[in-house]
Each structure stands twice: as structure tokens, then as C-alpha cells.
DNA sequence: GAGCATGATTACCG
DNA sequence: CGGTAATCATGCTC
């Protein structure tokens, strides 16, 4: 009866309302392991799908139950008719009913199993954040890149800085951390590839920060990596 | 559709 | 616990 427990836990079987919230709680618990996503939209989406599965499950279950009782009635009638010609013991009737119920419950088991599978697929699809990865918008990456390249000598934002960036970019702090982690490693791995970008943002922040007069005339010379921290492309802020 | 870009996850380290 | 490195899975471009 593992299937029953599983369906109950997922809120597919069991009471209407408590079930749904139980499922949501299960999802929340599973997602709490480190998923940085806010997830309210995903949850409502998940719930909708789960409700759909629930509906199918219950209507099918009802159908089976109805069919079972109909069939049982049918057999009982047959037995009743037969009882005119030969004696039929209550034991025999019981046995027949038992056989019918076993047959139908095995069909129900299949229904439960396929419902379980559907739920599992749904879960894996909705809980695996990688599946619904979205690129950050232009403005967000702009902000992040600006910070990264203006702190190229030490591109490790503090917790507060991360929060600030997260707020600016409308993403979570974990996403900021992920972004910087990825950025650092990828920048280090292939500095050449980021040269252009680095120069761009270096100039941008330079112009932005210090509104000094003309200084953008030297922004296209190739790389001169230094040995400390992270090699800067061609523009070194100071220090 | 192949191939690269990119965000997220995982294993491991200090 | 926060970092790196490798990897996964998807998005995007050609």
C-alpha cells in the first residue's frame, strides 16, 4: 500500500482541501533545500496541474467503483436466479464478491500507479529549477557586470552588496551569488573572451563614476593581465 | 538542429 | 558556510 501513502502524501487522494495544502507543503519542503527561486508562481502552476491529476484520478476511481458495484449487483442477480435451481450458500456468494472486488482493486492499483507516475513526472519537472531557467534581463546583467568589472581586483561582493544587487536586479541573493560564481570562474578561464566586455564596462563605470573630461580615447588597447587577484584587461581602477 | 551562452546544481575543499 | 570547478539543462543564435 505504498501507492496509497504516496498519493495521500501528494494530496491526490484524501480530503479535498487539506490535500492540496499538504502537497504544497511537500513541494515547499522539497524546494527549501536550497532553491533560490521564489516559487509562488511555480507552486500555483504545480497546484493547478496536481488538481487536474486529482480530478482525473477521482473520476476514474469513481467509475471503477461504480462499475464494481454494478458488476457485483449483476453477479448477485445471477446467483439469485441460480438459487432457484440449486442451493447457493452465503459462503459462495461471499467468495464471488471477494473475487470481483479483488479484480477491481487490481485495476484500481493500476490507476493509482499511473497516477503516481504522473505526479512524479510533474514533481520532477516543477522542482528541478534548471528546467525552467530564464536568462536575466538586460538591465540585470548590466548591473551585475558593472559591479563585477568595477571590482575586478576583488569581485567578491559582501552579503550587503549582494542584497543591494539582488534588489537592483529583481533577483534573489542566491542568484547573485550564482552569477558571481559563474562569472568569476568563466572570466578566469577565458579572459580573452571577456576582454571586450571588460573594456566596455570599465569605460562605462569610469565615465559614470568620475565625470571627468575626455578619457575614453584609450579604450581599445589589448590585454595586459596582471599577476595579482583577477587580471584586469587594460583599465585598472586604482590601488 | 548544432553549438555556444548562461543560470543552477553538485562535489569537493579550506 | 562560502568558494571553486565540473557538469547539467535550458535559452539563444546562426
UniProtKB/TrEMBL annotation:
Belongs to the TALE/PBX homeobox family. Residues 213-239 are annotated as: Disordered. One of its GO terms (molecular function) is DNA-binding transcription factor activity, RNA polymerase II-specific. It comes from the Eukaryota. It is found in: Nucleus. GO terms for biological process: cell differentiation. This is Pre-B-cell leukemia transcription factor 1. PROSITE patterns: HOMEOBOX_1, HOMEOBOX_2, PBC. Residues 127-190 form the Homeobox domain. InterPro entries: HD, Homeobox_CS, Homeodomain-like_sf, KN_HD, PBX_PBC_dom, TALE_homeobox. One of its GO terms (cellular component) is transcription regulator complex. Its main location: nucleus. PANTHER family: HOMEOBOX PROTEIN TRANSCRIPTION FACTORS. Residues 1-128 form the PBC domain. Residues 213-225 have a biased composition (Low complexity). Signal peptide: none annotated. Keywords: Activator, Developmental protein, Differentiation, DNA-binding, Homeobox, Nucleus, Transcription, Transcription regulation. Residues 129-191 bind DNA.
Amino acid at each position: 500500500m505504498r501507492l496509497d501513502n504516496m498519493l495521500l502524501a501528494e494530496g491526490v487522494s484524501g480530503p479535498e482541501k487539506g490535500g492540496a495544502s499538504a502537497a504544497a507543503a511537500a513541494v515547499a519542503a522539497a524546494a527549501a533545500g536550497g532553491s533560490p527561486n521564489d516559487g509562488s508562481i511555480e507552486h500555483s502552476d504545480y497546484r493547478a496541474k496536481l488538481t487536474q491529476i486529482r480530478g482525473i484520478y477521482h473520476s476514474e476511481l469513481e467509475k471503477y467503483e461504480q462499475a464494481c458495484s454494478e458488476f457485483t449487483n449483476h453477479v448477485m442477480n445471477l446467483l439469485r436466479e441460480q438459487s432457484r435451481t440449486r442451493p447457493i450458500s452465503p459462503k459462495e456468494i461471499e467468495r464471488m464478491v471477494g473475487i470481483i472486488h479483488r479484480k477491481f482493486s487490481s485495476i484500481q492499483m493500476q490507476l493509482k500507479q499511473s497516477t503516481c507516475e504522473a505526479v512524479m513526472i510533474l514533481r520532477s519537472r516543477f522542482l528541478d529549477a534548471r528546467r525552467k531557467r530564464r536568462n536575466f534581463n538586460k538591465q540585470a546583467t548590466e548591473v551585475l557586470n558593472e559591479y563585477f568589472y568595477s571590482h575586478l581586483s576583488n569581485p567578491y561582493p559582501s552579503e550587503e552588496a549582494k542584497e543591494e544587487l539582488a534588489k537592483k536586479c529583481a533577483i534573489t541573493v542566491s542568484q547573485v551569488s550564482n552569477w558571481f560564481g559563474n562569472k568569476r570562474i568563466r572570466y578566469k578561464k577565458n579572459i580573452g573572451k571577456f576582454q571586450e566586455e571588460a573594456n566596455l564596462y570599465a569605460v562605462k563605470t569610469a565615465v559614470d563614476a568620475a565625470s571627468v573630461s575626455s578619457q575614453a580615447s584609450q579604450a581599445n588597447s589589448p590585454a595586459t593581465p596582471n599577476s595579482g587577484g583577477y587580471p584586469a584587461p587594460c583599465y585598472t581602477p586604482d590601488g
